[in-house]
Every structure is written in structure tokens, then in C-alpha cells.
Amino acid sequence: MPRASRREVERALREEALSYNGIPSALVPRPSPESEPVLHAAQLQITAFLAGQRRGIDVPVDLSGGSAFQRRVWRAIRRIPYGRVRSYKWVASRVGGARYARAVGLALGANPVPLVIPCHRVVTSGGSLGGFTGGLRLKRRLLALEGTLALLAPAGKKREARGKRMGMFR
User: Which 3-state string (H, E, C) describes 22-79?
Assistant: First the structure.
């Protein structure tokens, strides 16, 4: 059997050690055989959603890692219909009071599954984008996919009034 050179062995070890986005492969959790059908279903649903062939992603998600407040926020977000947006203040009023709008933003930033819990549908009460874990570029693309971006930006008085008449910022 031919012997591998030291350089080839080191290269193979580096590739193995950094096999997942720079995270050592030994630290990357592997899916259990029981979870593989759920992951496959999620993959199919996400692909269809991004292709505009689905209006939502309905897979079971374990949200036990979040605080009680975060879980309330995430449940409220899941009820925002496709093609609609709501404000941080609207979400806050559903989970404890309008004064918690900033806390809602923090909870959305901790959202472990941003497409399943569609936090891209939450914007400022003035109609600007606010923030998004995946970046504003992706948020714009997701809102455009759902047909709501044109009602938001630029957030002028005319567009804001039009969006309010259409129930966009409730």
C-alpha cells in the first residue's frame, strides 16, 4: 500500500476538523435517526417556501431553549399570516404590553428558526424594516416574496397610510 505524504495527511485532517462552517466536526451534533424524517420534511417545505410554492413552514420545533417571554413572542409571530406584517408594538401588545416593543425585538433576535417562526414579518410601527437575524437584505427578499415589501419602503406618509388601510401594521 502506498504511504500518504505528511502533507496529504495534514490536509485531510484539516478538512475533517473544519468540515462544517469552521466548526470542528466532533462538535457538530449529528441528527438522530428519528429526527431525519422531520429534517427532510423541513428541507422540502423550506425549499418550496423560498420558491414561492408554499405560504408557511409547518414542522415541529423545540423552543424550550427560550425564556417564557421569548416563547410567547415566538408563538405570537407564528400567527402572523403570510403576506402580512405587524409592528414590534403590535406583537408587544399581544405578549404583555406595548411598552415591551424593544424586548420583542430582542426575543426575535434570539429566534432559533427564523423561517419557521417568521420574524421577517415584524417591522417598525412607522413601516421601516427594523432588524433581522439574517440581515436586512434577506428580510427584504422574504417580504418581497410575500408581496409586502412594496408597501413598506420607503416609509413615507402615503405608503404608511396605504399600509394601514390594508391592515398591514395592526
Answer: CECHHHCCCCCCCCHHHHHHHHHHHHHHHCCCCCCCCCCCCCCCCCHHHHHHHHHHHC
Tens digits of per-residue pLDDT, 26-38? Answer: 666 677 878 888 8
At residue 7, the pLDDT reads 77
Q: Is the pTM of this model over 0.70?
A: yes
Contact (Cβ atoms closer than 8 angstroms) between residue 11 and residue 5: no
CA angle 9, 13, 19 (to 5 degrees): 145
Q: Is the peptide bond before 154 cis (omega within 30 degrees of 0)?
A: yes
Reply yes or no on whether 53 is catalytic: no
Higher per-residue confidence, 143 vs 152: 143
Pairing relation of β-strands 86-87 and 122-123? parallel
Count of Cβ atoms closer than 10 Å to residue 137 Cβ: 9
Question: Which is catalytic among the residues 115, 119, 129, 151?
Answer: 119
3-state SS assignment for residue 123: strand
Q: From CA 129, how far away is CA 135, in angstroms rounded?
A: 10
